[in-house]
Amino acid sequence: MTPKQKKFCDEYIKSGNAKQSAIKAGYSPKTAKSIGQENLTKPDLKAYIDERLKELSDHKILSAAEILEYLSRVVAGKETEYVATSKGIFPDVPVSAKDRINAAKELLKRYPTTDPMEKQKLKKLAADARIAEARANVAERLGSEGDDKLDELMDKLIKESDKK
């Protein structure tokens, strides 16, 4: 492969436009369209382009192991997020209990358990998350004068979760 052909390939990887890549590589603008198309049919150039595209995609696409590691960090509470409220935007807030539960469910899809105690722990964790989320919603809406209503709502939620 000549230096001009390599430059063509590198430019083509960036733009996906054969004519413009040929011009940037130093080919005549008059013949750039036909040279560009011709270069794309050459086996060694095509192989180089395919190999470089694969390398680039390998670096951009997460592996299954990286996804599992991320989900594990979410479940462990080691990941944070930005949270917007009426009082402003807060960075580095631990992910919500709801998101942690969803991450746990995703992990369990890959590593299922049939242990009844583990299933019960997950149910309790889900119920606790619903209760915590409801408490936060009520507290935000009603402020400090809503404590009685909050306790009443919490009792209803606890009874509902005990039924399940």
TrEMBL record:
Gene3D superfamilies the UniProt entry points to: 6.10.140.2160, Terminase, small subunit, N-terminal DNA-binding domain, HTH motif (1.10.10.1400)
Keyword set includes Coiled coil: no
A Pfam short name: Terminase_2
Keyword Transport appears in the UniProt entry: no
Keywords recorded for this protein, A-Z: Viral genome packaging, Viral release from host cell
InterPro entries listed in its UniProt record: SPP1-like_terminase, Terminase_Gp1_N_sf, Terminase_ssu
Protein's UniProt name: Terminase small subunit
Organism for this UniProt entry: Lactobacillus amylovorus subsp. animalium
